[in-house]
Design a protein that fits this description.
It contains ten helices and no strands. The chain has 253 residues and is mainly α.
Length: 253
């Protein structure tokens, strides 16, 4: 009896040792997923946007989410048997077009998704996070620190009231901590449409010298035409930090 109990104890210890790492992966993936929300929705009431809703994507056949108009090659991949697992999704995110070409053995295959996530750990983290989005009302993934992934509680104000309440002092706009924090968000999120490599076509070239800080805040917080509103992704403080970076002398898309 001693030997089986010993093996069971070792197995249990190994399992428990893995759990915190998996939880942390999902928390990190939730942060990285902010790069994706311009095109993909998640949550119990997720809707199709530029890309399909990703609630419940793990375990789903490729090209099958109701109401989304997929490209022919993505539909063909699903018909061939492609199921989104954490592994296949991790591979896909590295280079969506090449993944489909390899899977279908078709050098002409393509996909609407042009975004590539090159960092191996980041791709695995995003897949781990999406595995928690199973279609139920999911609780937010916890983070080890209050500052990482934590959302600041927004006041019970209308969008217009929030925008009208913003004031930007020179001290705030020039504060190194604000500029640096805004720069980090910019290159994680905004540069995909507004950066130099995104031109031409994705978004207008920015002219920060002509913009008042309140104008920049309003565009980011509320959205405009094809630009999504980021008020549900970033806190008011984070959007203010984006403004500080855009208005800084060192701003570069």
């Amino acid at each position: 009896m001693l030997r089986p109990l010993s093996i069971l104890s070792i197995f249990t210890a190994m399992t428990l040792a893995v759990l915190p790492a998996n939880a942390q992966d999902a928390a990190a993936g939730e942060k990285t997923f902010k790069k994706c929300v311009a095109c993909h929705d998640i949550g119990a009431d997720a809707k199709n946007k530029v890309g399909p809703a990703l609630t419940g994507v793990i375990g789903r056949a490729a090209g099958t989410f109701a109401g989304f108009r997929y490209g022919n090659d993505m539909v063909a991949a699903g018909e061939k048997g492609l199921i989104w697992t954490e592994q296949t999704l991790t591979e896909y995110l590295e280079d969506p077009k090449q993944f489909l070409r390899d899977y279908l053995d078709d050098s002409g295959a393509s996909t609407k998704m042009s975004f590539k996530l090159k960092n191996d750990a980041a791709r695995a983290d995003v897949a781990a996070f999406l595995a928690t989005q199973d279609g139920a009302a999911n609780a937010p993934v916890a983070s080890d620190t209050a500052s990482e992934g934590a959302k600041v509680e927004e006041p019970a104000m209308s969008v217009e009231e929030v925008v009208a309440a913003q004031e930007f002092s020179e001290a705030f706009l020039s504060g190194p901590a604000n500029v640096d924090a805004g720069k980090e968000i910019w290159f994680a999120q905004c540069t995909h449409c507004h950066g130099f490599k995104a031109y031409p076509g994705k978004a207008p070239k920015l002219k920060p010298a002509k913009y008042k800080p309140t104008f920049v805040f309003k565009r980011v917080y509320k959205g405009f035409k094809k630009m999504p509103a980021w008020k549900d992704t970033y806190s008011i403080d984070e959007i203010r930090q984006i403004v500080a970076y855009v208005k800084s002398p060192g701003f570069s898309p």
